[in-house]
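Sanity check

After download, print the first record. It should look like this:
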Amino acid sequence: MYQSSDAQRGRSPVALRGESPVSVIGAGIAGAWQALLFAQAGHAVTLHERGDDAMTQATSHWAGGMLAPYCEREVSEPVIMRLGIRSLDLWREHFPQTPFNGSLVVSHPRDRADFERFAKLTSGHRRIDAQAIIGLEPSLEGRFRDALFFPDEGHVEPRLVLPQLHQRIAASGGTVAFNSEADPAEGDGVVIDCRGLGARETFPELRGVKGEMIIIESDEIELSRPVRLIHPRWPLYIIPRADHQFMIGATSIEREDNGVSVRSALELLSAAYAVHPAFGEARIVEIGSGLRPAFPDNLPRIAVNNQRIAVNGLYRHGFLLAPALAELTLGYVERGVIDNEVMQCA
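Expected structure tokens:
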């Protein structure tokens, strides 16, 4: 796992359990997991969020919530898969109600070459035929001749699980302070900066990568797991949510605005219709977008400078990577353990 220990080199951990307060800035998915693990480890934790508890301005509000390290291997470095697999265990441990029904990847015949390429670049899947697809997703009967099934993957609904994280932090003895603008340069004890794009004064190389999404509602189709449609121009995912709703997403646009273009909306809806015609009769509930914080290499980073720690650059993998990154931060603070692939120490 490309890890080494500062403790073995005679360097003391940042703080011992219970001896120093911990302030986490940013109550999105990255900050919430940091605060949860530190609170459960016995630290006096305060989670600061500049917005209110609705979290509508947070990147997490617009996320898909897919826990899919094997699928992400198509376009990601191996470290994403390594950390993602560890995060699956942490989601199962802390939120055992999380659906781990797997992921289904399909394509139409004209996109067969891209489908086969996806199969070669990923792992942890098995190829299933049309009959097996019906067994997993009866609503897709007759739609696809085969698929890739990733049985170990899962998904969460961000707008439901984030409040649960905040509640769990409080139940573990931590404090969640909304409408609290905190400065990472100030404060006693350990400060963990999880502000995303708000940390550009510290990381000017951060950029925002826009992800657009549409939420629709239909009682004519049911899905039990995320379905990815392979397409050369706009690979699409459809994620089931509560109350007969589905999130449709696909785009990663190198532009920093919060609008959704007509073209993107048409392509997302057309792709959903191509998965199942019933989506053509669905009701549009919401259209929106969020900006994901990303470094130039699209890899996450834990930057350590004495008692000031910054966790950033989760890109499109926020819900997938946040638990494992929080575990790494806790390991460094308590035991001085460094993960050389992710951590940078001043």
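If your output differs, re-run the checksum step. Summary of this record's structure: Helices lie at 29-40, 69-72, 78-94, 112-121, 130-136, 158-171, 262-275, 318-335.
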